[in-house]
Amino acid sequence: MKLKLNLIFQGAAGVIQFANANGSMVPPKYQWLLAILVGAAQLVVSVQAHYSNPDGTNASVAYRPGDKTAQ
After folding, report:
1. What is the C-alpha separation between 62 and 44, in angstroms, rounded?
2. For the segment 29-46, what is each residue's pLDDT rounded down to a tens digit?
3. What residues have CB less than 8 Å from 54, skipping those under 6 apart?
4. How many CB atoms are closer than 10 A to CB 21?
5. Tell me: the pLDDT tens digits for 2-14?
6. Are the CB atoms for 1 and 52 separated by under 8 Å?
7. DSSP assignment, residue 71?
8. Under 8 Å between Cβ of 55 and 71
9. Global confidence as pTM
10. Contact, 26 vs 34, CB < 8 A?
11. How far, CA to CA in Å, does 47 sit from each of 13, 63, 67, 68, 70?
12. How many CB atoms are closer than 10 A to CB 40?
């Protein structure tokens, strides 16, 4: 997963989590469900990003910032 995509997704999910906790995006009855769903999506994306280099290659490949041949 590329770094830019991870940052955008995590930032948007964080905003949703904050708005859900402090506002009324959904009825109070379902706020817990939204928090779990967004949190699970953040977990999946974070695990995928953990095993990737910033350019999107697998983390088992050595990361060289200027090298585009590893893709």
Report:
1. 23
2. 999 999 999 999 999 999
3. 2, 3, 63, 65
4. 11
5. 889 999 999 999 9
6. yes
7. -
8. yes
9. 0.79
10. yes
11. 15, 18, 24, 24, 21
12. 10
Q: What is the dihedral of CA 47, 53, 55, 57, to 10 degrees?
A: -90
Tokens of 15: 């905003």
Phi and psi based region of residue 27 (left: phi greater than 0; alpha: psi -120 to 50; beta: remaining): beta
At 22, which helix (H) or strand (E)? helix 3-22
> Which three-class secondary structure state does DSSP give residue 39?
helix
* Token couple for 44: 């999946």
The radius of gyration of the chain from alpha carbons, rounded to an integer in Å, stands at 16
Whether the CB-CB separation of 59 and 51 falls below 8 Å is answered with yes
Q: Which amino acid is at 63?
A: Y
| Token pair belonging to 63 | 């990361």
Which residues have CB under 8 Å from 64's CB, separation 6+?
Answer: 70
Q: What are phi and psi of 32, to 5 degrees?
A: -65, -40
